[in-house]
Amino acid sequence: MNVQKYFTEENKLQIANAIRVAETNTSGEIRLHIEKYCKEEVLDRAAYIFEKLEMHKTILRNGVLFYMAVEDRKFAILGDAGINQKVSDDFWANANETVLSSFKEGKLTEGLVEGILMAGEQLKEHFPYMKDDKNELSDDISYGKN
Q: What is the DSSP string of 36-88?
């Protein structure tokens, strides 16, 4: 069973577009990683994927990972050191709750889009777009092998 089956091509396009929109006015970077299972603590797994995707290598340390294990119903948002120093203490918890409330209604794509746009607003506020900015990380959804 392929993990990509949870999202139609249109859903994937909506998510990729949300990432592009969220990154439009910021030097920050957003990624989404989806896999079927997460057999460990979700934040530990998200941290592992964050490193595997080399998200910690952005110049301003302003990457944000949305991590989702669909079969195990686990989800986390993980920001790098640069963004974590700037946002309020409860921002990630609030963004996480926003996404999860949509998930509970069966709206996976809508929840991800809303959370991604929320992260983009924070990135825009704290890491505005610079004229020499380049997209340091792919906007494509990454998928686990499980």
A: S---S-HHHHHHHHHHHTTGGGSTT--EEEEEEETTTTEEEEEE-HHHHTTS-
Helix axes 9-24, 108-126, angle to 10 degrees: 10
According to the model, what pLDDT value does residue 36 have? 92
Fold classification of 3-128 is Diaminopimelate Epimerase; Chain A, domain 1 (3.10.310)
What are the domain boundaries of the chain?
A: 3-128
Distance CA 25, CA 31 (A): 16
76: nearest Cα among 51, 42, 35, 33? 42
Give the closest residue to 37 by CA, choosing from 74, 80, 85: 74
pLDDT of residue 141: 81
The Cα 50–Cα 66 span in angstroms is 9
